[in-house]
Amino acid sequence: MTLGSMLRVVVHGKLASWEEYLPLVEFAYNSVIHRTIGMTPFEVVYGFNPLTPLDLTSLSQGVVLRLDGTKRSEAMKKLHKKVRLHLEKKNQEVAKKANKGRKRVKLEPGDWVWVHFCKERFPTHRKIKLMPRGDGPFQVHERLNNNAYKIDLPPEYQVHNTFNVCDLSLFLTINDDDMSNFRTNSFQETENDAIQIPSRPFTRIQARDLQNMQGLFMKLEILGMMLIENKGYVLRNGGVLALLVRQGQSADRPRA
């Protein structure tokens, strides 16, 4: 429990009187053993734990209280060394738990990345909920360490160009061979996309829907050819939708 949480419980809605309770809450906070350091903050700073009002025994004559300045200094050094080792152990445990399942990202100068717009750093770019959450790609200028990178950011953003790795996403480029499989529309010169027929057994209704879908694709292909050859006819006779309806009716009408 943090100091703010303890103070919130003690105040219990009386916000104007929080200063009166602060010394008591601070004393209680510093007198409790913390799991991170393995002892109380009082003991870390002063070398002993203070007495509380609940202590009815006489003042304990501890070893630390009877030592002179030199020996007391050596005892405090040993105590701080013990606390430091305990802190390092706890930090390793917390880091191991926090990094479980995470993938370490390592960027190099020259890589292209996307920059995430956090609200604290880019308030003007996050004013509206539907505004873009990032921008890029921008090139990595310098690698400071495993967590910080300098980015070639345009000057109009008016922010420092050093970013944490959690605010960067690697920009993945696509080779020319991979781009040959992408088409913006079905009229580009390349092979037609095959209809994916499921390998599992399907019902009669699903078979009928698949057959209707194949017929619709054929009509759309014919429509595309007619759009290319008869643009003026399409515009004079009700547009593309009317042409599609006429084409579908003529294809579905039984022949004599």
From TrEMBL:
Q: Where is the Tf2-1-like SH3-like domain?
A: 110-169
Q: Which GO terms describe its molecular function?
A: nucleic acid binding
State what protein this is by name: Tf2-1-like SH3-like domain-containing protein
Q: Which InterPro entries match?
A: RNaseH-like_sf, RNaseH_sf, SH3_Tf2-1
**Pfam families attached to this UniProt entry:** SH3_Tf2-1
Supply the source organism's classification: Eukaryota, Viridiplantae, Streptophyta, Embryophyta, Tracheophyta
